[in-house]
Structures are given as structure tokens and as C-alpha cells.
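Appendix B, Record 12. Input sequence as logged:
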Amino acid sequence: MDSPAVCDPDASGIRYDIEADFGLLDTCNYRCEYCFCSPDKLEKKLTVHAEPETWRRVFDRTGLTWLLHITGGEPTIYPRFAELCQLLTSTHYVSFNSNLTHASVVDIAKSVDPSRISFINAGLHAKERERRRGLATFLKHAESLLERNFPLFISVVSTPDVLARVDEIIALTAPIGIAPLPKLLRGLYKGKIYPEAYSAEERSAFLDFTARACESYGPRLHSLRQRPSIDVFEDGKYVDGVPEFHGRMCSAGEKFVRLEPDGKVYRCEQKPSNYLGNILDGSFQPSTRKSRCDSSYCFYFCLKYTDTTAVGSTSFHTELSRGIGDFFRRKVRSVTDAGL
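Logged structural output:
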């Protein structure tokens, strides 16, 4: 590769050659009704394909510096997860999604260098959280990370139910001083395709929710050393629908890959034409150039790695200084004025 990918050259120090959307496991302890994974997949017995020491060794032997976005399933239930993060961050960078239910979160707060963490996307999952009476644990674990200056933000998938009770949802995390950021509901949900199915009232509520949430973070946003790959701060720009990426030039395979629990690596979507080898057996080889998108994948990574200026053309920290909240408040007014 010619040069490392750098999100925001004005940010402090996170430089990497390649990013992986690392699906460490399929298993999850939650059953959210909007989850992309089927219940059968989430209920699978957890399989450990490699110990933390092995994962570190196979990433190191590529000669690349990785940004590893660890997801699942619920990654924090993976055996020795805090050790895995500690080992990986000795030479690479990590981000992860989590519902913050597992005690390993506290171990991460105590043992991992926060400067090696790109971001932690803490999913509130309001309805499931309430059903399991898990709010106190969530707040305790989030606070343990925030106290040590980990770059954490809270997100909540914005179903119509969530958007109908924004004040109540914001109040859930008020004890730790930050609000959940609304995350676009995408795909099929209760017979409708989102975000296109949002009503005018729901779109307006989403934008106002975003403005209020962004403002609640204040100086904490500067613990985010770069624009997060799962950039829910920008979701309000896509309440009317997400862009089409097919046919655009894309860096997937070169600057970004999908990594499966068993070490198989794909350009993005898991299909034979996208297969790049297995990192555990040493057969992985990244692409050497961009190619045209012919796949379907996660909206956030498509925004980051396709040739488009829709997101990422302005420094994340520059946008913060301009006031993200103000941007979305103006958009609320434009939606209201247009009568959409």
C-alpha cells in the first residue's frame, strides 16, 4: 500500500494501513427485533477460532497496521475479550460495538490504553434493555469507560417507538451526562423499508433528537480522535434514504476488508468473488487497487470507502467546532417549513 489511510489528518495520532470489520462471533445475549442477524445465528454456541495471542500474531505478520472494528454478536462475551483488546492495541487500533452488559467492559477500562481505541459504540437497545432490566449495568459500565477518557458514544436504533418517546429515551442516560445518538433504522422492519418509511413527524423527531444528543457530549466529543467509522453523528443527513453505491470506485479490499470469525477475509460482502484468503492460515492478500462496487454492505463503511464526498470531506473536529447540533436544528426547520 502506498500510504496509510488517515481519517482527519488534524486528529491526534490514529494512523493505519487497513481497516477490518471484524465479526469476532455471531453469538449475542440480546434479541433486538430489528437486528440484521437471525435468532438462530444469535443463539449459536460461541466458537473460539483463535486465542488472543494468535489473533495478535496473525495481524502482526501481515506487516500492516490495522484498525480493527470488532463486532458480532456481542463481542464483550468472547472469552478473554479484554486481553484480546490489550494485545491487539499494543501494535494496532481497535474500535467496537457493544451493549455493555458483560463485566469484561470494566476490565477493558482498567487494562487498555484509551489512546489506542478509535471509538466505542455503546448500543442502548432501549426496548430490550428495559425488558431485561439492564439499565443500571449499562450506565455503570459506560461510566467506567468515560472516567478513563475512552472515546465512547451511546447510540439507539431509532424505531418509530423510540422516536415517539425521545424525552424518555434521553432521560435513561442522563445520570452519566450524555444522551443516546439516534441511529437510522435501516432495512425491513414490521413490513416497511426504512429509513424511507419514516413519516414526516418521525424525520423531524430524528433530527431534533440528533441535535440534542450532539450538544450533550460537549468537550467529550474531542476524545474521538477521528471520525468514527460507525458515524451515527451523520445519520440525520440520510433520514430520507441512503445513497446508492453500486458502480462507484471503492477502496474495499485495499483499505478495508470484512473479517469472519474463522479468519476468512472478504472485500466486503461475503461472496466467492470477494474472497481474499484466510488471515489465520496466512493466505490473506489484500487488493492492490480500487475497484467498482458490485456488492452490498454496511452503509457506514460504504460511505467511508467509496469515492464520494457525501461524508468525510470535512474534518470531523472542524464540524464539531461549527456545531453539529446547529446543523440538524436548521434541518428540522427546513423539513417543517417544507411540510414534508
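The two ends are 46 Å apart (CA to CA).
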